[in-house]
């Protein structure tokens, strides 16, 4: 579960001095789905304020099932945020090599089967 939750809270933003009443609902929802907050390896703001009197904030969050070994690190790319005011969140997802057998059925052009299907 990834997104801009627009909830500032000192649980994920050490520069924000307050606790939001909305965090309890978000955490309860995440836990009901078997998810936990997945912090980036390089913490920092995820949204840069437009107004110089406002502070940058952490409002873009990632929640994953921590038991899922397919997820690698979560990284913020502060250098790639322009022209957006939000920082791109990059999550490594492991893909295992697998052989998948594909069976393709086809009907040859001008065959008896094609003629039969075109009448239906």
Strand content: 15-25%
How far apart the termini lie comes to 47 Å
Count of helical regions: 2
The CATH topology assignment is Deoxyribonuclease I, Chain A
Give the CATH level 1 class.
Alpha Beta
Order of helices and strands: EHEEEEH
The CATH architecture = 4-Layer Sandwich
Query: Which structural category fits the helices and strands?
Result: alpha+beta
Tally of strands: 5
- Biggest sheet, open or closed, and with what strands and sense? 3 strands, antiparallel
Helix content range of the residues, please?
A: 10-25%
Summarize the structure.
The chain has 2 helices and 5 strands; from the N terminus they run E-H-E-E-E-E-H. The protein has helices at 23-32, 112-119; strands at residues 2-4, 36-37, 60-64, 71-76, 89-93.
Annotate the secondary structure layout:
Blueprint: E1 2-4, H1 23-32, E2 36-37, E3 60-64, E4 71-76, E5 89-93, H2 112-119
Antiparallel strand pairs: 1-3, 2-3, 4-5
How would you explain this protein's 3D organization?
The chain has 120 residues and is of the alpha+beta class. The model has no long low-confidence stretch (mean pLDDT 87). The protein has a single domain (2-96), classed as Endonuclease/exonuclease/phosphatase (Deoxyribonuclease I, Chain A, 4-Layer Sandwich). The strands form 2 sheets. The protein has a 3-stranded antiparallel β-sheet, with helices on one face. The protein has a two-stranded antiparallel sheet with strand order 4-5. The longest helix is centred in the first third of the chain and has 10 residues, at 23-32. The chain has helices at 23-32, 112-119, and strands at 2-4, 36-37, 60-64, 71-76, 89-93. The radius of gyration is 24 Å and the shape is elongated. Helix content is 15%, strand content 18%.
